[in-house]
Every structure is written in structure tokens, then in C-alpha cells.
């Protein structure tokens, strides 16, 4: 890990551009998440806080190999975290512009497939913690996507997050990474991301035609999409897990 440089987007436009490319490539499969109302209206907050956006650079290749996005905000009760999770964090950050923040929320960690299984995600999580502490804002809170829930949609999120392997470690790999990095599960955010779009939007993403109303899985989704043909709307409500 000595060949890694941990920096922020504020360091240079070159780093910011490279990190943006990495993030878009990593999240392309889940591009439908870009259409929650807070994402559409407030994601430019990332550009407003470049010193809160982390880039991990491979010194030998002079290449960004992982990124992490954080955002500062004010919340009047840190002992109670909202069910809104990711969407709430963006809305709250937008409302914090004219006041001093008292917490940091980590929004995403991005590691390209070619660089996975090298411990880079934990490097980013550690960098998130260090950055938040350096800003005098304690340790970060993260609405975490339990990635393997995609294959267990019939299990309530409250039960799923308790699953552990025979070795005592959490079943879900991304939750396991957060616990391994020293994170503590502090609650659920059952409505972390909400996307309401016309049925044809979901047909384009899923590659299937919906002939009846109902609940349907979508690749990469942590919840089914609820299709209402009478209203012509599909609604996706993603549950996440608050970690501190």
C-alpha cells in the first residue's frame, strides 16, 4: 500500500476528471440510481466540496484506482438517523449551505473491477474516517448498500443484516468490509433511495416488458420495482444500512 497516494479532488482537475471517469464506469450497471430526485437536484454539491471527495492514486501507474465521496451537513440529533438515508443526506447537505456542518456522510466508494480484492475499499473507508476527523467532524456515517441482498429480496432487511457466516463474520461482503474497517451498524434506512419513473423507464433498464402490475426484481437492485400500470409509474425504494 506504500505505492498509493490518498488525495482529494481539490488537488487537481486531472485527478477530479479521472475519478469522475472511474465512478461512472463502476456505477454504470446501476445507473437507474442516478434518477432519485435528490441526485438530480443536488448531486452538484460534490463539486462544491471537492476537498471532501477522495481519490486513491497508484503512484507507479499515475492512475486513480479508487474513489470515495463524502458530504458535510448539519443534523440536529446525531443519535437518530433518518429512514431517508442517501436521499436525505443530499437534501440535508443542500439545506446546510448557510450553516456550519456537524457531521459527514459518506455517499459512495468506487473501485473498478480490475482493482478489486486488493483491499482498496478499506483504504477508502480509512481515508473517509481520517478526512472527517481532520475536519473536526468526528467519524463519518454511511448509508451502506448491502450488495448481496440483490439475491435475497424475500428476506426483510432487518433480518438480512443479522446473517453471519460460520466464522462469525457478516454474510454480506460490503457490510463485512465496513465492520472489518471498524464500522458499527447503527440503524436501517429503509427508504434510502427512492426512484419514481414511468413504466417505460423501467422497461428500458430491465430489458423486459411489464404486462401486469406487481413487484419485479431488477438487476443490481436491493428491492423490487413496484409497477403500477394503471398510473403508468414504477417505484423503486432501496433499503440501506446506517454505519458509523
From TrEMBL:
Keyword Transferase appears in the UniProt entry: yes
InterPro entries, per the entry: Acyl_CoA_acyltransferase
GO function term, MF aspect, one: transferase activity
Top-level lineage group: Bacteria
Entry keywords, A to Z: Transferase
Protein name according to UniProt: Transferase
Amino acid at each position: 500500500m506504500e505505492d498509493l497516494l490518498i488525495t482529494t479532488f481539490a488537488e487537481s482537475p486531472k485527478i477530479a476528471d479521472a475519478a469522475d471517469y472511474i465512478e461512472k464506469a463502476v456505477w454504470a450497471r446501476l445507473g437507474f440510481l442516478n434518477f432519485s430526485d435528490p441526485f438530480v437536484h443536488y448531486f452538484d454539491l460534490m463539486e462544491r466540496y471537492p476537498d471532501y471527495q477522495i481519490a486513491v492514486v497508484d503512484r507507479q501507474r499515475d492512475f486513480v484506482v479508487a474513489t470515495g465521496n463524502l458530504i458535510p451537513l448539519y443534523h440536529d440529533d446525531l443519535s437518530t438517523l433518518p429512514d431517508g438515508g442517501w436521499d436525505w443526506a443530499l437534501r440535508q447537505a443542500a439545506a446546510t449551505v448557510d450553516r456550519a456542518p456537524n457531521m459527514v456522510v459518506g455517499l459512495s466508494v468506487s473501485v473498478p473491477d480490475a482493482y478489486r480484492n486488493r483491499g482498496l475499499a478499506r483504504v477508502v473507508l480509512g481515508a473517509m474516517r481520517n478526512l472527517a476527523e481532520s475536519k473536526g467532524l468526528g467519524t463519518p456515517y454511511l448509508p451502506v448498500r448491502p450488495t448481496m441482498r440483490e439475491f435475497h429480496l424475500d428476506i426483510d432487511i432487518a433480518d438480512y443484516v443479522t446473517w453471519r457466516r460460520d466464522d462469525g463474520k457478516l454474510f454480506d461482503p460490503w457490510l463485512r468490509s465496513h465492520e472489518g474497517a471498524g464500522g458499527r451498524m447503527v440503524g436501517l434506512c429503509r427508504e434510502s433511495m427512492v426512484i419514481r419513473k414511468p413504466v417505460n423507464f423501467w422497461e428500458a433498464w430491465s430489458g423486459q416488458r411489464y404486462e401486469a402490475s406487481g413487484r419485479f426484481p431488477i438487476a443490481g437492485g436491493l428491492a423490487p420495482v413496484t409497477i403500477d400500470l394503471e398510473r403508468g409509474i414504477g417505484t423503486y425504494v432501496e433499503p440501506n444500512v446506517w454505519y458509523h
